[in-house]
Design the sequence.
C-alpha cells in the first residue's frame, strides 16, 4: 500500500512534463476561506517553514505539493526518488527550475514568492497556473496536496471585480475531480454553518465520501466556549471525520518559533482542553489520516486509471498514425502520395474506394446516374413534335415546292423540319458533359478529404494536385464538347431515310390516305351538308377581300405582299391534312431513331474522351508536372499546425506509455 502514493507522484511528474491534464490523478485539495490557516496546516504536516505567510491573500497560485518520504542520508540510495549524492536531510525541487535542488527552505519560500509574482504581479493578483513543488524528507508521509487561494469576497489591489467568482471556479476545477480528496479547512472562531469550504465540498461531493474537515484556531476561541460539539460532528456531520489542529500564531511565526515546538504545544493544548479527543486530534493524526485516506482512495481509483490510460494510448496512437511520420525521403514520399491519390481517384470512379459515401451518390455511381437518369429522362421528355404546328409543316411543304403546285409531299420539307427537331438534342447532350465534368471535380475534394490523409499534412502539395487535375479536366472539356457537338452534326449531315427502323414513307402515306378515305365514307352525309357552309364561307371571303391574305389589294391601296399576314385559322383541305399527318409521322419516327442513337453515343463519348482519358493519364500528368527537384521542398512543406500537433501527440503518447509502464509495475497484491 505504501508504494501507491509514490506511483501517483510519478504519474503526476510524467503528465506535468507534457503540460497536459488528460488524466485526473488522486490528490488532496486544501480548501478554505482566506486566512483560515490552510498554509499553516500544510507547514505543520511538512514540519518546516516554506510557504509565504502574512495577512490578506498570500497564496495567489495553486501550489501542488508532493511529499516524498526518504530515508536518512546513509539510506539515501534506497530512496524512491533515486536522488543520490545529496547530503542534506531534507530538500525540495521545483518543476520550473528543472534539476535545481533547494536545501534551504527559506529559499523555497522566496522561489514561491518570485514565481507567483512573475505570473500575477506584486499587488494581490491571482493566476490558475500551478506551481509544482516536491519535498523530500524522512519526517513526512507520502502525500500529494494542493494548496489553493483562499475564498475571498471583496477585491483588493490589482484583483479583478469578479475575484470571488474566479477563485471559486479555480477551486471547483480541482475539487470536481472525482479522484481528489477534499480537505475543508474552517477556523474555529467562526460559525461552522457559514463555512464556505464545506459548502463548496458539499456541492461537488454531496455524499461526503471524499471530504475531510479540519478545524483550525481552536486556541483563539472566546473564553467560555469550546468546539466539542463541532469536533464530535454534532453541528455538521462529516463522513470521513473532523480533526482539530492548533497552528502557530503570527507572533510565533515572527519570533521564528520552531514547528516541532509548536507541535508539542499543540499536544499539550489538546490534553488540557479536549482530553477525550487528544488521540484523534492534532497535526500528526491529520497527516496519518490523510495518508491512509489517500492510499485507500488511490486503491479504489487505480483500476479506472489503468483503463483510462490504455484508452488514451489507443486514441493518441490513432492520431499519430493519421499525422504520419516526418518526411525523410522526399522523392519517395511525393511519388507515394501522387500514386495513392491517383489510385483513390480511379477507385472512386470505379466504385472500389475504401470510403463509401452513404449520404449521397458519389464518383462513378453519380456519373451513371447522370447518364441514365438525368440525361436519359431529359431526352425522353422531349416531344418529337414540340414547337411544330400544323401551319409550320404546311408552310414548309409549300416553300419546298416553289412556284409549282406539288403532286407529292416534297422530301426537302421533311428534312428541313426533322433537322430543326434534331438540333434540340444538342443542348441536353452538352449539359450532360458539363454535369460529368462537375462530378469529376467533386471527386478531387472527396479523395483529399476522406482517402488521402497525407494531403492534409502538405497543403501546398494538395493545392498543386488540385490545380493539375483541374487543368487536365479543363483541357479535356472542350474536346469532349466538340465531339458531342459533332455527334449531333453527323446526324444532321445525312438524313438516312433507308434506316431499317425508319417507317417507309409510302406505307405511311397509304395508311393516312386509307384512314382518311374511311373517315370520309363514314361521314359522307355530314360532308355534303358541310359543303354549302364552305361555299358560303368562300362567298363571304370574296365579299371581304381586306381580311384575306390572298385577296387582291383594293384599288388605291398599295399592299406589300411580303408583309401580308399568313392565314391562321382556316379549314385545311383533305390533301393538306393528309400531307401534314404524313410529315408528322415521318418526323416522329426519324426523331426517335436519332434520339436513341444520341442517348447511346453521348455517354460513350463522354466516357472515352473525358472520364477514361483522365483515369488513364492522371498519374502521368501529376508526375510530369509535380515530380521536379526544384518543387520538392516547397510541395512537401508541412503546415505549422500539423507539425506542432504531431509533436504534441508524440509527447503525449510517450507520457502515456511511461504512465502505463509505471501502473503495470504495481502488483495486484499491493492493492490490499
Sequence:
Amino acid at each position: 500500500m505504501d508504494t501507491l502514493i509514490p506511483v501517483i507522484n510519478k504519474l503526476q511528474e510524467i503528465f506535468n512534463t507534457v503540460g497536459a491534464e488528460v488524466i485526473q490523478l488522486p490528490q488532496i485539495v486544501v480548501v478554505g476561506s482566506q486566512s483560515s490557516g490552510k498554509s499553516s496546516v500544510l507547514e505543520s504536516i511538512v514540519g518546516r517553514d516554506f510557504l509565504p505567510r502574512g495577512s490578506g491573500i498570500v497564496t495567489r497560485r495553486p501550489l501542488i505539493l508532493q511529499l516524498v518520504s526518504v530515508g536518512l542520508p546513509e539510506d539515501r540510495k534506497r530512496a524512491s526518488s533515486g536522488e543520490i549524492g545529496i547530503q542534506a536531510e531534507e530538500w525540495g525541487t521545483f518543476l520550473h527550475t528543472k534539476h535545481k535542488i533547494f536545501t534551504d527552505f527559506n529559499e523555497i519560500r522566496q522561489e514561491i514568492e518570485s514565481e507567483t509574482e512573475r505570473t500575477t504581479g506584486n499587488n494581490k493578483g491571482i493566476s490558475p497556473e500551478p506551481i509544482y513543488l516536491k519535498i523530500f524528507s524522512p519526517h513526512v508521509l507520502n502525500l500529494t496536496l494542493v494548496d489553493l487561494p483562499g475564498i475571498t469576497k471583496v477585491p483588493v489591489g490589482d484583483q479583478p471585480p469578479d475575484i470571488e467568482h474566479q477563485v471559486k471556479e479555480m477551486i471547483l476545477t480541482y475539487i470536481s475531480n472525482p479522484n481528489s480528496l477534499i480537505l475543508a479547512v474552517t477556523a474555529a472562531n467562526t460559525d461552522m454553518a457559514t463555512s464556505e469550504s464545506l459548502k463548496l465540498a458539499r456541492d461537488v461531493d454531496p455524499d461526503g465520501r471524499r471530504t475531510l474537515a479540519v478545524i483550525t484556531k481552536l486556541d483563539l476561541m472566546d473564553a467560555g466556549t469550546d468546539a466539542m460539539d463541532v469536533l464530535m460532528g454534532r453541528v455538521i456531520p462529516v463522513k470521513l471525520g473532523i480533526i482539530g489542529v492548533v497552528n502557530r500564531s503570527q507572533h510565533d511565526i515572527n519570533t521564528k518559533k520552531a514547528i516541532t515546538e509548536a507541535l508539542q504545544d499543540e499536544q499539550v493544548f489538546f490534553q488540557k482542553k479536549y482530553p477525550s479527543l487528544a488521540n484523534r486530534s492534532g497535526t500528526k493524526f491529520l497527516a496519518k489520516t490523510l495518508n491512509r485516506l489517500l492510499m485507500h482512495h488511490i486503491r479504489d481509483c487505480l483500476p479506472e486509471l489503468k483503463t483510462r490510460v490504455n484508452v488514451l494510448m489507443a486514441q493518441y496512437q490513432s492520431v499519430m498514425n493519421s499525422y504520419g511520420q516526418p518526411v525523410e525521403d522526399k522523392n519517395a514520399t511525393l511519388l507515394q502520395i501522387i500514386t495513392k491519390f491517383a489510385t483513390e481517384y480511379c477507385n472512386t470512379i470505379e466504385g472500389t474506394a475504401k470510403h463509401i459515401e452513404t449520404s449521397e451518390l458519389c464518383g462513378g455511381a453519380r456519373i451513371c446516374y447522370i447518364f441514365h437518369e438525368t440525361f436519359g429522362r431529359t431526352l425522353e421528355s422531349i416531344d418529337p413534335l414540340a414547337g411544330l404546328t400544323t401551319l409550320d409543316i404546311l408552310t414548309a411543304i409549300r416553300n419546298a415546292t416553289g412556284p409549282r403546285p406539288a403532286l407529292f409531299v416534297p422530301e426537302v420539307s421533311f428534312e428541313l423540319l426533322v433537322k430543326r427537331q434534331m438540333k434540340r438534342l444538342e443542348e441536353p447532350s452538352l449539359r450532360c458533359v458539363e454535369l460529368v465534368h462537375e462530378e469529376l471535380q467533386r471527386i478531387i475534394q472527396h479523395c483529399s478529404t476522406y482517402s488521402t490523409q497525407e494531403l492534409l499534412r502538405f497543403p501546398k502539395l494538395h493545392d498543386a494536385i488540385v490545380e493539375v487535375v483541374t487543368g487536365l479536366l479543363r483541357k479535356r472539356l472542350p474536346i469532349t464538347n466538340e465531339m458531342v457537338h459533332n455527334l449531333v452534326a453527323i446526324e444532321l449531315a445525312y438524313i438516312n431515310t433507308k434506316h431499317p427502323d425508319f417507317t417507309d414513307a409510302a406505307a405511311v402515306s397509304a395508311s393516312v390516305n386509307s384512314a382518311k378515305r374511311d373517315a370520309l365514307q363514314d361521314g359522307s352525309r355530314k360532308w355534303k351538308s358541310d359543303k354549302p357552309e364552305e361555299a358560303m364561307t368562300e362567298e363571304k371571303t370574296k365579299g371581304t377581300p381586306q381580311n384575306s391574305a390572298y385577296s387582291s389589294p383594293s384599288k388605291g391601296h398599295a399592299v406589300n405582299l411580303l408583309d401580308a399576314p399568313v392565314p391562321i385559322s382556316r379549314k385545311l383541305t383533305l390533301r393538306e391534312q393528309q400531307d401534314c399527318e404524313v410529315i408528322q409521322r415521318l418526323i416522329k419516327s426519324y426523331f426517335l431513331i436519332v434520339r436513341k442513337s444520341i442517348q447511346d453515343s453521348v455517354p460513350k463519348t463522354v466516357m472515352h474522351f473525358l472520364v477514361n482519358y483522365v483515369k488513364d493519364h492522371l498519374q502521368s500528368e501529376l508526375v510530369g508536372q509535380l515530380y521536379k527537384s526544384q518543387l520538392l521542398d516547397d510541395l512537401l512543406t508541412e503546415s505549422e499546425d500539423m507539425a506542432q500537433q504531431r509533436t504534441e501527440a508524440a509527447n503525449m503518447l510517450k507520457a502515456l506509455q511511461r504512465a502505463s509502464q509505471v501502473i503495470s509495475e504495481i502488483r495486484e497484491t499491493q492493492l490490499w
